[in-house]
Amino acid sequence: MATHTELPRLPVLAQPKRLPPAYRDDRRSVYWVEREPLRGGPDGHTVFIATPRVVQLARHKTCVGAWQPHRPSPIWPVSDGAMTASSTARLAQLSEHRMPHRSYTFDCDPQWEISDASKKASASARIDALAVPKKREEVHPSLDPYWGYRYPVSEAAMRTNPTERLDALAMHKTYHKDFQDARQVQWDVSQQALEALASLRLQQLARPRSRTMIKDDYDPYKIAPSAKKTRATPRVEELALPIPRKVRQKKMAAA
């Protein structure tokens, strides 16, 4: 029996894989590009040296000399000068509210007083004619039966006699000779159906499945031994073959 000392291949496989000459180690930090990362100073903190341009860009933006911050509150003290100041004529003119147009009329009050002249006035014949309500046929003259309008039928149309062709066209379409109406939901059961006797086979099918026939350990994927020993007929083998137009030959790889 061979031992480990007799197998020189194992020490060769146990040696680590040598790195290629052009191999470069991974970066120690994502912020270091092509130089070593900065190290901590005497106090343990990293000291960064920025250029004057970087220092200038790092300063915050200064405000304009005339800029004033927002008032801390909507309520502020009023100076004595503002309290004792007198407004100019222009300021007094601008402080006046805007006047409405000279032709503007305000909304009428829902309740107003009727003058005595209106109470004692008598309507003219024209006003009485305009006050009479219109008939529905006149209000909706669009010949629409929905509004109560009916098309007038002339006396000649009422007394005329239709032709044979018109009578034939006026008859409704009859059903097919084999047409049967939909069966009603409820119907009378015939006497023969009430007195009929079920056959033995019908009684067997109508009987509910017995609890003893149910197998708890039934496996639907288990193949019967007889099915394993059966042989397919030539016709079954013919039907099992793939379609010739869908068969594709395998390509042989070149040696």
Structure description:
With 255 residues, the protein is mainly α. It contains 13 helices and no strands. The protein has helices at 9-14, 52-58, 80-84, 89-95, 116-120, 125-131, 136-139, 155-159, 164-170, 191-195, 200-206, 225-229, 234-240. The relative contact order is 0.02.
Topology of this structure?
Layout: H1 9-14, H2 52-58, H3 80-84, H4 89-95, H5 116-120, H6 125-131, H7 136-139, H8 155-159, H9 164-170, H10 191-195, H11 200-206, H12 225-229, H13 234-240
Could you name the key traits of this structure?
mainly alpha; single chain; 255 residues; 0% strand; flat
The proportion of residues forming helix, as a percent range, comes to 25-40%
In round numbers, the mean pLDDT is 82
Class by alpha and beta content = mainly alpha
- Per DSSP E runs of 2 or more residues, the count of β-strands stands at 0
Strand content: under 5%
The global form is: flat
Number of helices: 13
Rg measurement, Å = 55 Å
Q: What is the distance, rounded to the nearest whole angstrom, between the alpha carbons of the first and last residues? A: 40 Å
| Largest sheet features | none
Which runs of at least 5 residues are low in confidence (pLDDT < 50)?
Answer: none
Helices and strands, in order, run as: HHHHHHHHHHHHH
Protein name: Testicular haploid expressed gene protein
InterPro entries: SPMAP2-like (IPR042401), THEG (IPR006623)
Keywords: Repeat
